[in-house]
């Protein structure tokens, strides 16, 4: 029994010595781990809360547009872009506001919103759509070089024919008929035979001389 008590005492003394040397570091490590876990949970909760709030604001935006309440739509859109810019709803809001402004002939505001959407969206499809609409607005304002620059970047195959087709429109507006026809031909080649837009591109090609192949 005495030997057992001695062994226990030795272990206790070793533990005390170890704790005296390393105890503060252990406590600091535990505190850091607890703080990190709490911070991660807070961040997850914050992201979830922001997503729900952004979704509600986006629904308000779409409902306001459907009701032709331009003031409420702009307020909801501005809220999304200002306070929820990191959510997927903000670039979509910019696209909707740009479409409304373009319909109202406010092309400068539409251009600003489309530029923002193209620069800030993390979704390739939304970025491509924003760039297409931006180039269209630039074409309407006769900003031909800017429109061609907007269309010159890489894009997904799903939007390929639309980029080529719009490029053809810009080149044709510049009076570059041969280059426009090349762009239209590229668009035509990317269109499936059952795509209704294929007929429109074919008409553009016919107008520039020669049927599409």
Offer a quick outline of the entry.
The protein is mainly α. It has helices at 2-66, 70-83, 89-103, 107-120, 124-140, 144-151, 160-173, 177-190, 197-207.
What's the SSE blueprint?
Elements (H helix, E strand, L loop, with lengths): L1 H65 L3 H14 L5 H15 L3 H14 L3 H17 L3 H8 L8 H14 L3 H14 L6 H11 L6
Description:
By secondary structure, the chain is mainly α. About 80% of the residues lie in helices and about 0% in strands. It has helices at about 1-65, 70-85, 90-105, 105-120, 125-140, 145-150, 160-175, 175-190, 195-205. The longest helix is centred in the first third of the chain and has 65 residues, at about 1-65. The radius of gyration is 30 Å and the shape is elongated.
Q: Can you count the beta strands?
A: 0
Number of helices: 9
Q: What is the strand content?
A: under 5%
Mean pLDDT: 85
Rg, alpha carbons: 30 Å
Give the CA-CA distance, first to last residue.
102 Å
Q: Helix share of residues? A: over 70%
Regions with pLDDT < 50 over 5+ consecutive residues?
none
Which class do the helix and strand fractions yield? mainly alpha
The largest sheet, given as strand count, sense and whether it forms a barrel, is: none
| Multimeric organization | single chain
CA-based shape: elongated
Q: Note the run of SSEs as H and E.
A: HHHHHHHHH
Features:
about 210 residues, 9 helices
């Amino acid at each position: 029994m005495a030997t057992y008590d001695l062994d226990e005492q030795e272990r206790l003394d070793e533990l005390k010595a170890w704790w005296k040397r390393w105890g503060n570091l252990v406590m600091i490590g535990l505190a850091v781990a607890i703080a990190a876990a709490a911070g991660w949970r807070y961040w997850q909760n914050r992201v979830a809360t922001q997503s729900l709030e952004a979704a509600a604001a986006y629904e308000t935006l779409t409902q306001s547009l459907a009701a032709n309440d331009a003031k409420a739509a702009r307020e909801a859109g501005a809220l999304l872009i200002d306070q929820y810019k990191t959510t997927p709803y903000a670039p979509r809001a910019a696209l909707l506001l740009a479409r409304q402004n373009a319909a109202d002939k406010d092309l400068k505001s539409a251009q600003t919103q489309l530029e923002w959407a193209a620069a800030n969206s993390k979704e390739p499809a939304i970025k491509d759509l924003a760039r297409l609409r931006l180039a269209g607005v630039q074409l309407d304002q006769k900003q031909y070089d800017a429109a061609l620059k907007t269309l010159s970047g890489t894009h997904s195959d799903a939007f390929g024919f639309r980029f080529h087709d719009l490029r053809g429109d810009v080149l044709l507006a510049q009076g570059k008929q041969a280059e426009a026809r090349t762009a239209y031909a590229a668009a035509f080649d990317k269109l499936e035979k059952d795509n209704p837009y294929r007929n429109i591109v074919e008409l553009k090609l016919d107008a520039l001389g020669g049927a599409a192949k």
